[in-house]
Amino acid sequence: MDDVLITGMGVISHLGRGVDAFWKGLSAARSTPTTAADPFARMSLPLMYEVPAEDVPAGPERYGDLVLGRGSRLAVEAARQAVADAALEGVAPDRIAVVIGTGMGDSGLHEDWRSGTGPEGGHWSPTFSVASAVGSLFGAEGANSSVSNACAASGFGLSMAADLIRTGEADVVIAGGAEAYSRVALACFNRLGAIDPVRCRPFDLHRQGTLFGEGAGMVILESASHARARSAPQVYAKLSGTGWSCDAFHTTAPEPTGAQISRAMREALAEAGAGGDRVGCVIPHGTGTQLNDTVESQVLNEVLDGGRDAQAPVYSLKALLGHTGGAAAALAVVAAAQILHRKTVPPNIAPDEQDPACTIRLPLDEAPLEGEFVLVNAYAFGGNNVSLVLEEASA
């Protein structure tokens, strides 16, 4: 079976636009939330990690009658970067597919319609048109799919994109995730009491919930044979393992034993042929919520106990980006591919006091990558779990 390679990347987040800005932000290990720039955010804690106004692509753009909201504009910007990075030209349109994961899509347009604000006073608009927007821009005539199972959306989407390549349905897939500010989502988490009043603090003893972030991460996935045939300029990593599961336990809470989280991790590692001792870095789901962080920490110790001298380093991405919802796994995959490509793990933001129940290794200094695999986890409401394994790949 042909390998699935990452040959291009694009990203936008509150750290800036482009992979270089993203990596610079990760390496700086500094991040502070701001108050949402929304006069209708009438809630106790309107905090989030928002993409600066100067970095958001101008818009809304139109494709025919379709007005693109903030989520689609973020996705299109990241996709433009990824396509340019991969030097993707001359590919038959019917051999290019698009898979985008998003939890809220362009719900901001609908919220503007309800409040009478936004372009043209706000108007009703379809919410999950992000994949269509990206597909329209690049003339992709293969499958164009939106995946919207909450915070694991882009993780499931990336594994679906890999399957399209492995089954011969596509040679190239523009894949990733995008998430923009949603007044409704932020208000709901305020009502749940699930917003941390300080910052996103995964694995911190004093964490009080999560904080949302905006962003989009996109990759160009293609078969190894196709990449060779077109002389792709670079290969960042290979997507070599995926695992899915469902807790079937509770609408919002993870199952306390973590059995299905463990299953997803083990299946992804087995498909990649990776023993726990060969994992050089883990990018966890790590949202900053009490039970999620504790359960994931316990499972990581169980799954990755391969007799190594030290635990695999955990890179807590959400401490910098916040919880980017349906885009979280895609942004984590961009970070993982950069870690493999640069053979370096960035420093973590230091927790004020690490939770003793979260016995994981959170290095505070930049360090060389210790293994050839990176494990990425993403979980969602409804008990939807997905794990992805990336590995080093030569050109």
Descriptive notes:
This protein is of the alpha+beta class and 395 residues long. The mean pLDDT is 92. It has helices at 19-28, 70-85, 107-115, 130-138, 153-166, 183-192, 224-229, 259-272, 290-303, 318-321, 328-342, and strands at residues 4-13, 16-17, 34-35, 47-48, 62-63, 66-67, 96-101, 144-147, 172-179, 215-223, 237-246, 279-283, 344-345, 367-368, 373-380, 384-391. Strands 1, 2, 7, 8, 9, 10, 11, 12, 15 and 16 form a 10-stranded mixed sheet that branches. It has a two-stranded antiparallel ribbon with strand order 3-4. Strand 1 and strand 2 (16-17) form a beta hairpin. Helix content is 31%, strand content 21%.
What layout of secondary structure does this protein have?
Layout: E1 4-13, E2 16-17, H1 19-28, E3 34-35, E4 47-48, E5 62-63, E6 66-67, H2 70-85, E7 96-101, H3 107-115, H4 130-138, E8 144-147, H5 153-166, E9 172-179, H6 183-192, E10 215-223, H7 224-229, E11 237-246, H8 259-272, E12 279-283, H9 290-303, H10 318-321, H11 328-342, E13 344-345, E14 367-368, E15 373-380, E16 384-391
